[in-house]
Task: inverse folding
């Protein structure tokens, strides 16, 4: 719970704030300065938990720049005999102990750090020794074409060393960089390739073929999870398609056309039906749904009317 946002119940109001039910942590104070505009005893409120300067567990409605288990690019605002202190968006600064600095931190400079719970003090701390917390390779943790969150850590001779989903190292090759990147910049990308040694290659954008592969697998999985049927057609709104599949209507129609041509699905006026016997092998890899078709195919006009894309 400490180092994360929690939904806690308001149990009583006092002159200096609210007390929240922290379960095994006991009653936790939400100071007056962090109170929401409207509340009632018995309501639940989202708060971040950490230790104040007197080592008490305290709650805040402010959101830090990063939480425990995450990486961030933070500015050092002070150093002393205890270590370096980083601005992480809260009143109390974040400590980086001396033994977690690489190299020694300097006031005014920014650093990529990982936030963790210190076993000895029980407090939230940060470390610049990222290799101690991040995986160097993937053990089937990601799928090809999967969209991931990235943090640019360093420029290398090959491209950019990036942190994937706060858990893994990855490499964004120079030739796959579509725009200049700043150190510490956050952006989304895609799993391009997992090498034989487990190292992960990243790309900023998928090409049309790769998008179709990823989307086709997603649609087939959705069909299998919903009794082999999806209530979507070419007449469905863009909003309905995005809410269900998180893709545009144009990409939806292209991918459905590809799956239809492979006889993996059946199209009816009320939606999409899975041809179960044909689709079983197609979902066993992330690319099997479109490998056999070199060019994306539209939905045949006689099945769902005109096949123009939005």
Result:
């Amino acid at each position: 719970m400490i180092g994360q946002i929690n939904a806690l119940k308001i149990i009583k109001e006092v002159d200096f704030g609210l007390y929240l039910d922290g379960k095994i942590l006991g009653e936790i104070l939400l100071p007056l300065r962090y109170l929401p505009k409207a509340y009632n005893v018995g309501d639940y409120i989202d708060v971040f938990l950490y230790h104040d300067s007197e080592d008490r567990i305290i709650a805040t409605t402010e959101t830090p720049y990063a939480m425990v288990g995450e990486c961030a690019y933070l500015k050092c605002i002070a150093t002393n005999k205890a270590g370096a202190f980083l601005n992480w968006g809260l009143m109390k600064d974040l400590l980086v102990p001396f033994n977690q600095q690489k190299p020694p931190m300097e006031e005014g400079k920014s650093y990529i750090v990982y936030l963790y719970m210190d076993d000895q003090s029980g407090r939230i701390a940060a470390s610049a020794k990222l290799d101690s917390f991040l995986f160097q390779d993937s053990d089937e943790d990601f799928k090809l074409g999967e969209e991931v969150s990235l943090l640019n850590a360093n420029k290398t001779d090959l491209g950019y060393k990036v942190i994937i989903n706060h858990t893994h190292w990855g490499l964004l090759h120079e030739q796959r960089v579509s725009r200049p990147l700043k150190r510490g910049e956050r952006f989304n990308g895609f799993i391009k390739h997992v090498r034989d040694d487990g190292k992960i290659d990243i790309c900023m954008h998928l090409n049309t073929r790769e998008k179709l592969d990823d989307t086709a697998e997603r649609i087939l999985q959705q069909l299998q999870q919903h009794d082999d049927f999806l209530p979507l057609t070419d007449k469905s709104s863009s909003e309905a398609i995005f809410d269900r599949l998180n893709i545009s209507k144009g990409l939806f129609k292209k991918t459905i056309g590809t799956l239809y041509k492979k006889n993996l699905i059946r199209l009816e006026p009320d939606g999409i039906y899975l041809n179960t016997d044909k689709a079983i092998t197609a979902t066993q890899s992330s690319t099997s749904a479109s490998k056999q078709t070199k060019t994306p195919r539209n939905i045949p006009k006689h099945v769902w009317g005109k096949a123009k894309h939005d």
